[in-house]
Design brief:
The chain is α+β, with helices and mostly antiparallel strands and about 90 residues long. The protein has one domain. Helices cover about 30% and strands about 15% of the residues. It is built from four helices and four strands. β3 and β4 form a beta hairpin. It comes from Sphaerisporangium aureirubrum. Pfam families: HNH_2 (PF13391). This is HNH endonuclease. One of its GO terms (molecular function) is endonuclease activity.
Length: about 90
């Protein structure tokens, strides 16, 4: 498992726990490329472009809209503003 930055350092993100989401390496790659995101309510969102561009992603489409597991303690939870940023700036919504 790897921690993916919600907001990359190159886009003003910081090395902080709340600027990360712990993901499998393949999921991390899809997150970085905008095919997957986590919304501010900690639910998985999957871009329709994943299927269109790779002919793949059924594992993720089955889980779309489901909540992801996040730490219970507030300082360790992914930052909601960072997640909103990822949804609006990185996620390939169409």
């Amino acid at each position: 498992m790897q921690a993916a930055h919600i907001r990359p350092l190159s886009a003003g993100g910081q090395h902080r726990l709340d600027n990360g989401v712990l993901l499998r390496s393949d999921v991390h790659t899809l997150f970085d490329r905008g095919y997957l995101t986590v919304d501010p309510d900690y639910r998985l969102r999957v871009s329709p472009r994943l299927r269109d561009e790779s002919g793949n992603g059924e594992e993720f489409y089955r889980r779309a809209g489901q909540p992801i597991a996040v730490p219970e303690s507030r300082p360790d939870r992914p930052d909601r503003e960072g997640l909103e940023w990822h949804v609006s700036e990185v996620f390939l919504s169409s």
